[in-house]
Write a structure and sequence with these properties.
The protein is built from no helices and 17 strands. It is mostly beta strands. Strand 8 and strand 9 form a beta hairpin. The radius of gyration is 32 Å and the shape is rod-shaped.
Amino acid sequence: GRNSAGTAYGEEVVFTTTIPATTPIVVTSTVTDITTSSAICGGNVTNDGGTTVTARGVCWSTSPNPTVSGSHTSDGSGTGVFTSTLTGLTPNTTYYVRAYATNSAGTAYGEEVTFTTECNTVNVTISGNTTITYGQSTTLTASGANSYSWNTGSANNSITVSPTSATTYTVTGTNSYGCTGTASVTVTVT
C-alpha cells in the first residue's frame, strides 16, 4: 500500500501463464507398395499442440474423410515420422486415407490422399474340341471368372460355333472385383 510514509510491498508471488493446448499438426504421407489387399502409408506429427501426442496412425475408408471411428492403425505416440500398413483391402477399389494424431485437446487429421488397390489376376481358360470337321459344331467353354464376353458378342461362359475356316475365338473374363483376364483358342477346321 501507499501512504504519506512511503510505499510498502507485500510478499512476492511467482506464477506462470499456460497456453491452452491445441490439437496436433499431422501430415499424411504418400501411399506406396499398393497390392490387391494392402498398402503402406503413414505420416509426420510436426507439432504436438502443446501437450503429449498419445496416439497416431492412419485411417481409411472407401468414402471421403475417414476417421478413427472406422478402419485405422495405431502407430505409437509422440511427434515425428511414422509408417503404417493398411491391410484387409479389397482389390480394384479406391480408398481415402488420412493420417491422424491425438492429444488431450482432441484428434487432428492430415490432408486426405486417395489410391486404388491393384487388380488380382484373373486366369481364364477355354476348353472344348478345337479341331472339328467342316460343317460340324463345337462348344467352347470358358472358366476362371465370374462373367464372360466372347469376341462373337456372346456374354456367357459357353458358345457353340460352326466355323468354315480356321478361326480364333477370344474370351474376356471378369471377376467380382471388376478385374479381367483373357484367353484365346484357334479352332481348326479339317
